[in-house]
Write a structure and sequence with these properties.
Layout: E1 4-12, E2 25-27, H1 30-33, E3 41-47, H2 55-69, H3 74-77, E4 79-83, E5 88-92, H4 95-98, E6 102-109, H5 113-118, H6 124-127, E7 141-142, E8 144-151, E9 156-162, H7 169-185, H8 206-217, E10 237-244, H9 246-255, H10 263-278, E11 287-295, E12 313-321, H11 322-326, H12 330-347, H13 356-361, E13 368-374, E14 391-394, E15 402-407, E16 414-421, H14 422-432
Parallel strand pairs: 6-8, 11-13, 13-15
Antiparallel strand pairs: 1-6, 2-5, 3-9, 3-14, 4-5, 4-7, 8-9, 10-16, 11-12, 15-16
Helix pairs in contact: 2-7, 9-10, 10-12, 10-14
Length: about 450
């Protein structure tokens, strides 16, 4: 039974944009097109302690600041639309597309936000009630929706749904950072100028690649036939968060010191070894694959600035055999494979990009660990004026093998959220942060 009650659904008006959009539409790049068929990403901030601000004041502040920031992020206010005459999906930023404004949901709950924020095991049934539920049976669809939930025992949850075609993690963080800044200080950050123009992505045949990605992923447009994982589908899975502190990360790096693994690689390697180990794959010579994100902004030719909000992450895969990872020395081999894949992607990020979708569709089920997030994106720094969140969650990623990495408020600490079948999670929890001798 739902324990979240909707109080009001309103619209936040969008002011005219100070940044003109050519032809009022944005054609998706091939980076963007990889996400046409997917459901909205859902982000959740939990603020258990908001005693210095009333709920009406919080609602008023969030709405007024959102109205002020959206002109700088006009694609987020638009609609994802299919144009059959040119077989392209675009972000429509015209006046008619944004005239309805942004859906803003106010709700209340009798659940205990303090226990939800502290629990390592995710309460998926509760989380999905704190974020906007945007279904996309066909295009057009809204890009952005917001929900704010107050708790009867104090505290507030801020849930945001964003369609992935509009931005990657870097772009979405820019929106949250600017929105929080205006909400907290009343002013736009100095020198703030996000870039949305997909023309900065320069690659021969890029437009045709985008069309081909769209055709393969969503052949029934404007119907999306988006893969939708219901709560019932996820009930056999467990999502749990682990905090990896700086001393632990240093000890893992020391294990692979001759490889000089980064924080991301050392944590990812540790996850891979633990997953392969708990699944009993030490004698399995089948494939074991890590999907890792590589931000291409600084690596393109010519490079583009970090202010670019659109998707710019390469599909990168590190391929190993399961026995290589689960057997003795698996951590070193995993570090080496991850580092090799990242170095290759850094040098030639777009080589073979035409085959990214084909490669992804051929990945063997149950043999892939998909990493998302970044240790460089500080979502825990999002202070809207009533303090930083006690908990930040990507509520959408709930498939077997999903792993999300996010930097915590505590310096040097990384939050690692892992999705596994329930029967594997207990063993994973016992081994992941244990000494190496335990794996």
């Amino acid at each position: 039974m739902s324990r979240v009650r909707v109080l009001e659904v309103s619209r936040v008006a969008v002011q005219p944009s100070p940044c003109p959009v050519p032809n009022k539409t944005i054609e998706l790049s091939f980076f963007d097109s990889m996400f046409v068929r997917l459901p909205h990403l859902q982000f959740l901030f939990l603020f258990p302690n908001t005693t210095n601000a009333s709920f009406p004041a919080i609602i008023g502040s969030l709405k007024s600041s959102l109205t002020r920031i959206l002109p700088f992020f006009h694609p987020f206010a638009g609609k994802l639309t299919y144009i059959p005459s040119v077989a392209r999906v675009v972000i429509d930023c015209s006046a008619s597309a944004i005239s309805e404004g942004i859906t803003f949901i106010e709700a209340e709950s009798d659940l205990d936000i303090h226990s939800i924020a502290k629990s390592e095991v995710h309460d998926l049934e509760s989380f999905v009630q704190f974020v906007p539920n945007v279904t996309v049976p066909e295009l057009p669809t809204v890009i952005l929706a917001v929900q704010v939930t107050r708790f009867l025992n104090g505290g507030v949850a801020l849930g945001v749904a964003v369609h992935h075609t509009v931005a990657d993690g870097q772009g979405i963080w820019q929106l949250f950072e600017a929105w929080a800044s205006i909400c907290r200080t009343g002013s736009v950050p100095s020198g703030f100028a996000p870039v949305h123009d997909r023309a900065v992505i320069k690659y021969p045949g890029g437009d045709e690649i985008a069309k081909e990605f769209t055709r393969k992923l969503a052949p029934t447009l404007p119907k999306t036939a988006a893969p939708h994982h219901s709560l019932q589908d996820c009930m056999h899975l467990t999502k749990r968060t682990f905090l990896v502190d700086e001393p632990t990360i240093k000890s893992w790096k020391k294990q692979g010191i001759h490889l000089s693994p980064s924080t991301f690689i050392s944590i990812s390697a540790r996850v891979l070894v633990t997953v392969a180990s708990v699944r009993g794959l030490a004698n399995d010579d089948g494939p074991f694959i890590a999907g890792i994100p590589v931000d291409c902004r600084s690596r393109l030719n010519p490079p583009i600035d970090d202010s670019y909000t659109g998707n710019c992450v390469a599909a990168c895969f590190a391929r190993m055999t399961a026995s290589e990872v689960a057997g003795p020395g698996g951590f070193i081999r995993a570090c080496a494979a991850l580092k090799e894949a990242v170095i290759k992607a850094n040098k030639e990020p777009l080589v073979g990009c035409e085959g990214w979708i084909d490669e992804a569709l051929k990945l063997p089920a149950g043999r892939v660990v998909r990493f998302t997030g970044s240790v460089g994106l500080r979502f825990y720094e999002a202070d809207f004026g009533w303090g930083k969140p006690d908990r930040f969650k990507v509520a959408t990623l709930n498939c077997d093998g999903d792993v999300v990495l996010v930097s915590r408020k505590e310096e040097g600490t990384v939050e690692v959220s892992v999705v596994l079948p329930a029967q594997d999670m207990d063993a994973f929890a016992k081994r992941f942060l244990s000494p190496f001798s335990r794996i």
